Amino acid sequence: MTEATDLQTLLADSRRPWWKRISTWVVVGLLLAAAAGAWWWQRQAASNAAPRYVTQPVMRGNLAVTITATGTLQPTRSVAVGSELSGTVIRVLVDVNDRVKKGQLLVELDRAKLGDAVAGARAELESARARRQLADVTLKEARASLARLEEVARLSGGKLPAATDLDKARATVDRAAADLAAAGANVAQATATLSTSETNLAKAAIRSPIDGVVLSRNVEPGNAVAASLQAVTLFTLAEDLASMKLSVNVDEADVAQVQAGQRARFTVAAQPGRDYPATVARVAFGSTTTDNVVTYTTQLDVDNTDLSLRPGMTATATIATTERNGVLLVPNSALRFTPAGAAPAAAASSSGSLVSKLVPRPPAMGARRSGGGGGGARPDNGNGREATLWVLREGQPQALKVLRGLSDGRNTEVSGEGVGEGLAVIVDQAAAAR
Question: Which of 148, 177, 203 is the last residue of a domain?
Answer without folding.
Answer: 203
